[in-house]
């Protein structure tokens, strides 16, 4: 029986760092960010849906999606952001389920569903437990500004577009504290993995 762990967090809280640790250990990871790019590639229904709603201004000259232009629109307007999530939600969910099914065929003990908007998009029913990668609001803001070279106002806008990290912590089964170094974060993930495999072995 494969155990499905949902992995989520807030923007710039370090979810990708934790996802990479799982990959390093050979754990299959379904990355929703990859799916979100795949479903809007030229010629896809996802890109067509975006073009029909947002217009040509969100396309590059070669017909591909201009993510920066789209981001400027949706992060400044919650209604437009909600519309985008509705337009792409079904395409991304289908992609995630296809990837999950693909990995399940090999019957691994553990699969990670790495989904930034796991709670916001109601993926809780797709997983057995949820792991949230968290850090303080101050550190989150600082890391986001540095990572994406954003002004404080823009960074705060993007953080506010997601469910507050404090709320995600309340809903989590497991919380990884990413306020420290990568090694400290990795230690927590490895402790969870060791415990998981010990429990799995005891059941078999």
TrEMBL record:
Q: What InterPro entries does the record tag this protein with?
A: Depp_CoAkinase, P-loop_NTPase
- List the Pfam families hit by this protein, alphabetically: CoaE (PF01121)
Reaction(s) this enzyme catalyzes, per UniProt: 3'-dephospho-CoA + ATP = ADP + CoA + H(+)
> What keywords does the record list, in alphabetical order?
ATP-binding, Coenzyme A biosynthesis, Cytoplasm, Kinase, Nucleotide-binding, Transferase
Q: Is Kinase tagged as a keyword?
A: yes
**Database matches in SUPFAM superfamilies:** P-loop containing nucleoside triphosphate hydrolases
- Gene Ontology molecular function, alphabetical: dephospho-CoA kinase activity
User: Would the keyword NAD be found if you checked this record's keyword annotation?
Assistant: no
Its EC number is: 2.7.1.24
PROSITE patterns in the record: DPCK
The entry's ATP-binding residues are 12-17
- Family the entry assigns: Belongs to the CoaE family.
Q: What is this protein called?
A: Dephospho-CoA kinase
